[in-house]
């Protein structure tokens, strides 16, 4: 995916054409860089005094294109381009080619002044997103067909862009030169300077939140597809927006006027979902509260409620009493396969919809019955759900955190990483519990005083249990009390298992033994825990491996890893401290 500046889209100035062009340019490869809504000030002499390019597309081989976008009906009459608003019918005179030319001249002047030795091809293009202009159509001399994109280029703009680059290169007789990565970065830095003034995690997280609030093209397409596909399993790695999609699908079903059961597994996630505003047709449950509804009147001990409910639901429940024709299940990998099978049958009997959202990589809840391991939910889904769809794009974590999360994915997809960037995750290696507690206190202090985060935005997660954690006897860090559940004025300290499905701006992962990184269970816990951080991630590793033991350890992980703590951190995409 092309890298965009800014990293998140704005409101497109109310222009549907600009929105369409943005989505189209998102399909370009990562060798492209795109400036959106690029404002500039000229000198009023060599260049226009000010202006804005809808898009500036940069490529190290092809050069730079300033693109002006116009939507609606397009005509050329009385010596002027005219645009018709299809909603209001209003017609106005436009100057798209002159606007694009003004942007070109300003960019060219800036590069010639600041990097005269690295000036690439700088040219213009116009994109009419609502119409198709046939080849051979007579056009004004200022607007050759070769530099115009139209509605037909929205699906795959790359080929047309390369033709436009080629047109200008031949016209200006500029030989093709490939800019080195360092030169290309310098050109970008000249036009889009980057500087940081006390950048905080609190500020950086705002970009992630704005990005997360939007559905990606793939997610929109999936929801559209599910309109007609009433039974489906949607798989996605951590951060790909499964819960967001599950909630949106539940709302869409509720608008059809029928009841919807939204079922999740995690107790804390359930409480957070219950606190949100939902359509009256949607009922939020986890397995425990569903048991309490269906087995009302029975005294269900908390320690055995799930086992008793699963036996009741399988053997005693009267299916004719079921009230929810539509069923949406989040965290489906954590439910017993027999329960999923029964719920699928109920949805079918009521002619309803049945959707599962899951991540097989987050299967950290094991189930046994009479000494035998039960079929996992993922295995049942593979065997019984004919329609299985996959989400690839990470929408929760910054690209740097996503890189760490991706370390544990068996099939790393090239489009997994988010376009939002932030701080590189930090790896802290300590020798014992005392050093771990000191490092954890330092984390809390930095997040609050330096990164300006609220206490409720900070979470500490253990890959162990609360009882066995090295922080088990610690009641406060940096003068701030710890709590095992959300509490005002306290840092939430809980387990990875209990925090599944939730997220925080800053996450500290603790009790990660270096020696256990080769074990699949530890890898899954680190994967799940790391993926809970939206803007900042820090992991405290217990150094229980000697220098002599490191070569054997890293050989089991990846033969390319340097046999040292720094090598392990680099493999995880982290910065070692």
Structure description:
The protein is built from 18 helices and 25 strands. It is α/β, with parallel strands linked by helices and 577 residues long. The protein folds into three domains: 3-191, no CATH class; 217-391, Rossmann fold (3-Layer(aba) Sandwich); 414-576, P-loop containing nucleotide triphosphate hydrolases (Rossmann fold, 3-Layer(aba) Sandwich), CATH 3.40.50. Helix 16 links the parallel strand 23 and strand 24 (533-542). Helix 13 packs antiparallel against helix 16.
The spatial strand order of the largest sheet comes to 20-21-22-19-23-24-18-25
Describe the main β-sheet briefly: 8 strands, mixed
Determine the number of helices (DSSP H or I, runs of at least 4 residues).
18
Shape: globular
Q: Span between N and C termini?
A: 32 Å
pLDDT < 50 stretches: 195-199
What gyration radius follows from the Cα positions, in whole Å? 28 Å
Percentage of β-strand residues: 15-25%
Quick check: average pLDDT?
A: 86
Helical percentage? 25-40%
| Helix/strand structural class | alpha/beta
**Count of DSSP strands:** 25
